[in-house]
């Protein structure tokens, strides 16, 4: 994927999310981060969308995006088939384009 | 001040931390709250409410964030997340209750109860995400509604923190109670506008020993209605009675590969439950009744795998229809009307006719046994005309339901979505005074209107 395709992929994938929250409690990262919404798959999708729309900075999303261990347990429960693990991989690429690296 | 009450680690103020709390599963986007607070005791909630009440700061309580009507979307103010209220405190099988905190998720509660052969019956399709507190606040129902009713039938008592911070208790650990106004019931379906639930005493019941699942396909609303009537008129213990329309079946066929016979407009699916002997006798009786209602085909599942396959057609319907969206930006708005079961055929006909004549993309399904009809209405929120058509259908279906002695909401609540429809329903029933009574109750509980401001009553 080139940069344009990554942006298109992130946009279309994040728009598929209906925010039902079925993914949240399946997420081991959410579980190990005090069950804070920021570390949930739903938040990763919301923050990715926010980055693309300009309402969230890459710096603000980085910790959530990098805390995903890409296990795909969330995908099993997602009614619209959002593959958050895959989205996260491309979101990391996007963030890396914007920032120097993964750490704040 | 909030930090002093719950500790620094339990107050979120960074924009990135609070951004995910701005939305729930509805189409509404809220306003960024000042903070998200994560208390874990009634005392902490009490201190937070006392502080907010004194300073006129709105408070929005959030459980699983799975509301379909915007009832958990904040409009500024602060958010109280119940996620640390996640403990099951007491189980009393003899007295048939369980005491839980409001942040316990329904699936987790039922997993715990299943180890003892018991269950808490309200089972909304969102039970993996929905919490006890949220489901009480919206009077959630679910697939078992035909036998078990809604949440209101299963709540015995509630610990509640009032808007001024006072901690009180409504109801108790007894099934029977006749001691003044039933304030526990008043809390159910109040959508967080009257108080914050910090503990709940819930009724439990035994998981049925045995279950048989039967499906039948029909050509028309009248045939479907005849099956509904004859089954409900019998002594058969039906614990689930669902329907899918042809568009729903088509979605399921495309995504899950579950076929349906040619000419079928509706699928009916029922569960018959009881002891092994009872289930055997009753499923045989149900098959006999269904055979007399001119189905295209019908049959009972012969084993668990087949039962699960049938069930996945219904349980997987939400995702199946969502996968039919023409573009990812298309949103699904979910209708939630209810009518007396005998009015279902006529109601379905009228809604179908509206959908046909207005060219709206919508599929119908739901808990037909208790008269609850859901609709997935597809709307491109970026397209004003598409959005308007969807909300017009939502409104029209509500009016049709009221004309058939039903209501604009069965189990999702009013939230931000159906305030006008609620007012319209009361007007149509010559009961507009009820809205004034509701406002008076709200004023008695929360005179400064800090709790879930902007919901149920609209104007902030």
Feature tags:
heterodimer; A: 104 residues; mainly alpha; Fumarate Reductase Iron-sulfur Protein, Chain B, domain 2; 6 helices; B: 460 residues; alpha+beta; Uridine Diphospho-n-acetylenolpyruvylglucosamine Reductase, domain 2; Uridine Diphospho-n-acetylenolpyruvylglucosamine Reductase, domain 3; Alpha-Beta Plaits; 4 domains; seven-stranded antiparallel beta sheet; five-stranded antiparallel beta sheet; 16 helices; 18 strands; 35% helix
Characterization of the model:
The complex is a heterodimer of chains A (104) and B (460). Chain A has six helices and no strands. Chain A is mainly alpha-helical. Chain A has one domain: Alpha-helical ferredoxin (Fumarate Reductase Iron-sulfur Protein, Chain B, domain 2, Orthogonal Bundle). The radius of gyration of chain A is 12 Å and the shape is globular. The model of chain A has no long low-confidence stretch (mean pLDDT 90). By secondary structure, chain B is of the alpha+beta class. Chain B contains 16 helices and 18 strands. A seven-stranded antiparallel beta sheet of chain B has the order 15-12-14-13-17-18-16, sandwiched between helices. The relative contact order of chain B is 0.12. At the A-B interface, α1, α3 and α4 of A face α2 and α12 of B.
List the helices and strands and how they pair.
The complex is a heterodimer of chains A (104) and B (460).
Chain A: H1 3-16, H2 28-32, H3 41-53, H4 58-66, H5 73-77, H6 84-98
Helix pairs in contact in A: 1-3, 1-6, 3-4, 3-6, 4-6
Chain B: H1 2-6, E1 11-12, H2 15-18, E2 35-37, H3 42-54, E3 59-62, E4 78-81, E5 88-92, E6 97-100, H4 106-114, E7 118-119, H5 132-137, H6 145-148, E8 155-161, E9 167-171, H7 183-187, E10 196-203, E11 205-206, E12 210-218, H8 221-233, E13 238-245, H9 246-256, E14 266-274, H10 276-291, E15 298-300, H11 304-315, H12 317-322, E16 330-338, H13 344-358, E17 362-367, E18 372-380, H14 384-403, H15 419-428, H16 433-445
Parallel strand pairs in B: 2-4, 3-4
Antiparallel strand pairs in B: 1-2, 5-6, 6-10, 7-11, 8-9, 8-10, 12-14, 12-15, 13-14, 13-17, 16-18, 17-18
């Amino acid at each position: 994927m080139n940069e344009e395709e990554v942006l298109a992929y992130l946009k279309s994938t994040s728009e598929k999310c209906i925010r039902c929250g079925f993914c949240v409690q399946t997420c081991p990262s959410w579980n190990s981060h005090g069950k804070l919404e920021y570390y949930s798959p739903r938040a990763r999708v919301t923050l990715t969308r926010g980055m693309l729309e300009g309402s969230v900075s890459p710096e603000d999303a980085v910790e959530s995006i990098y805390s995903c261990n890409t296990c795909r347990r969330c995908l099993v429960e997602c009614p619209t088939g959002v593959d958050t693990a895959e989205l996260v991989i491309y979101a990391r690429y996007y963030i890396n384009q914007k920032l120097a690296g993964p750490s704040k | 001040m909030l930090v002093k009450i719950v500790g620094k680690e339990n107050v979120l103020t960074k924009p990135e931390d609070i951004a995910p709390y701005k939305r729930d599963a509805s189409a509404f986007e809220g306003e960024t709250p000042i903070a998200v607070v994560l208390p874990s005791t009634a005392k902490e909630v009490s201190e937070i409410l006392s502080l907010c009440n004194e300073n006129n700061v709105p408070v929005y309580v959030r459980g699983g964030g799975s509301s379909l009507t915007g009832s958990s979307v904040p409009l500024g103010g602060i958010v109280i997340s119940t996620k640390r209220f996640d403990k099951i405190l007491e189980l009393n099988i003899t007295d048939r209750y369980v005491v839980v905190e409001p942040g316990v998720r329904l699936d987790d509660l039922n997993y715990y109860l299943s180890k003892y052969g018991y269950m808490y019956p309200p089972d909304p399709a969102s039970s993996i995400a929905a919490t006890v507190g949220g489901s009480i606040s919206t009077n959630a129902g679910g697939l078992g509604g035909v036998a078990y009713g809604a949440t209101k039938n299963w709540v015995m008592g509630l610990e509640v923190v009032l808007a001024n911070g006072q901690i009180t208790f409504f109801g108790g650990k007894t099934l029977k109670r006749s001691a003044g106004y039933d304030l526990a019931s008043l809390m159910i379906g109040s959508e967080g506008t009257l108080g914050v639930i910090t503990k709940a005493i819930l009724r439990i019941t035994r998981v049925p020993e045995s279950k048989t699942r039967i499906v039948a396909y029909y050509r028309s609303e009248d045939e479907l209605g005849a099956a509904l009537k004859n089954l409900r008129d019998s002594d058969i213990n039906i614990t689930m009675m669902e329907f899918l329309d042809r568009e729903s079946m088509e979605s399921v066929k495309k995504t899950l590969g579950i076929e349906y016979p040619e000419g079928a407009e509706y699928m009916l699916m029922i569960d018959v439950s009881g002891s092994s002997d009872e289930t055997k006798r009753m499923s045989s009786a149900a098959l006999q009744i269904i055979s007399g209602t001119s189905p295209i085909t019908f049959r009972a599942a012969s084993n668990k795998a087949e039962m699960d396959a049938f069930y996945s057609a219904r349980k997987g319907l939400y995702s199946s229809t969502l996968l039919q969206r023409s573009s990812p930006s298309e949103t699904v708005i979910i209708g939630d009307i209810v009518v007396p079961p005998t009015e279902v055929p006529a109601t379905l006909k009228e809604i179908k006719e509206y959908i046909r004549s207005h060219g709206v993309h919508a599929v119908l399904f739901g808990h037909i046994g208790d008269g609850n009809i859901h609709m997935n209405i597809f709307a491109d929120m970026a397209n004003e005309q598409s959005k308007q058509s969807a909300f017009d259908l939502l409104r029209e279906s509500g009016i049709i339901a009221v004309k058939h002695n039903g209501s604009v909401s069965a189990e999702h609540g009013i939230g931000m979505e159906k305030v006008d429809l609620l007012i319209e329903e009361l007007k149509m029933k010559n009961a507009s005074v009820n809205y004034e009574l509701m406002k008076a109750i709200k004023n008695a509980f929360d005179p400064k209107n800090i709790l879930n401001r902007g919901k149920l009553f609209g104007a902030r």
